[in-house]
Structures are given as C-alpha cells and as structure tokens.
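thread: overnight batch results

M.L. [08:02]
morning all. the overnight job finished for the chain we discussed friday. pasting input first so we're all looking at the same thing
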Amino acid sequence: MLLSWHDRLVLAITPEQLVLRHARAGWRPQLSDITVSADADATPGWQALLPQLEQLLRSRQWQRPVLSVVLSNRLARYQLLPWSDELHGPAEWLALARHNYRQVFGELAAGWRYRLSGNGYGRAVLACAIDEALLTSLQGLCDKLAIRLQLVQPYLMVAFNLWRKQLNVQDGGLLLAEPGLLSLASFRHASWQSLLFETLPAEQPGAASLALHRMLLQLEQSQLPSELATFTPGYAIAPTRPSPRLRPLQLPAEAGHPGSALAACYGLASSGGGR
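M.L. [08:03]
and the structure it wrote out:
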C-alpha cells in the first residue's frame, strides 16, 4: 500500500442524511464514520443539508483533504437510450439525452448536468442527470474550505464500477437498496437492458421483497434476469416469484479501495449510519 499524506474523505448524500467516512493520512489509515441527519422540521432535500455539511467539514483540521462523493439514486435521474446507428459521437448522444429528459421533465431538465455511460457499439447507453445546483454547491464549498473534490458519482454507477467483474452482464442484474428506494438494473448480452425503481416505505417489514416482486412483474418473461447480484444493507430480501437467484455482494477487504470506500459509506447510510 502506498503511503498517503492526504486525509481521504468519502461523503454519502441522501435527501435526509449525510454520512462522512474519514481515512486519516499515514502508514495505517484509521477509519471513522460520522452521520448527520436533517432537522426534523426541514423540508427533505440536499439544500437543507448544506449548512450542516459545511459545519461538519469545518469541524476538524484535515491534512490536505481529498473528497469523493456518492449521491443517492434519489438525487439522480436515469434513462436508457437504445442504440442508434444514426448518432455519431458524444455530442449527438448528449443532445438526444437532453431532448428525452426535456420531453419527460419539461423545463426542470434545463437545470441538470448530464453524463453518459456506454459499453460499446450496438449497445444501449445509460444517461444520468444530476441537479447542476447540487454539483456547483459541492464544488463551491470545497473551494472555500480548501478541499479537493475528486469525484462525484451516483450510487448506481459506484456500485456498477465496483462489482462490474462480478456481475452477470449476459443474463443478470444488480439490485441495490438504500433509504427510501430499491433500484434494479438488468443486463442482456453485455448491455444495459432495463432500469426499475421502487419506493421503500420506512420501517415496513417485507417492503423490499414486495418492491422487488413488483419490479420483476414489470419485466417481460424474456427479460427476467437469471441472477441478481444484491447489495442491500439493512434490508432483508426474500425470494419471490418470478424469482431469479439472489447472490449477495461483499465489499472488497482492502479499506483503501476507492470504490469500496464509497459503497461502504453509502451502506452505512442504508443501514442507519455509522457511529
């Protein structure tokens, strides 16, 4: 392991909660976790958490801090763009994504920043939109506090990149649970096939299993994945019918793994946060 002279901070943001994971600089990084919840009277949303985030980041003397951020899937909006031979280059794909989002969300879509994730010729492209004001606020706060903002990613992409080699992309899927939301991405022939999201009611036993059942019923028989790789800390998922095989995912053992740190931090938010 290379010696790092930076304090590495990983921040998970949900509409109601912040979880900050800190790996102290040095030969043996020590991990600590801090959870901050929004005020009970505050309107849910990232805006209400910004003052608490600033206070949290000011609360310690960091050593050359570097910050990575993982955003709840509730703070991102996804679309799958079917492959088209008529589109040439990233600019045309981006223009298509903007058009599709405007068709669905109207003028709200004008205030979002877009990212595309493709997986080769002939395969569907994943589009993601995040509130431009959120990204600008995070960058502005980091600039003010002399913190280097290294990465901002939505949870789905963090998880996909972390476990990509373990996913069955020929005939499988990825299932993620977080506070308030269950997300299911399915794959076929090494391409994105479908994206489904279901609300998870708080403190309702069996809610995640019922939500998964509803999601699977939305898929045609030919689209059902044979296996779901799952990362659902804090939520029990029971097999349902129709039922693919469920295979729980494990975080990499090395604490310094960047993807592992992001997923572990968000896992803390899902399971009630660290102490």
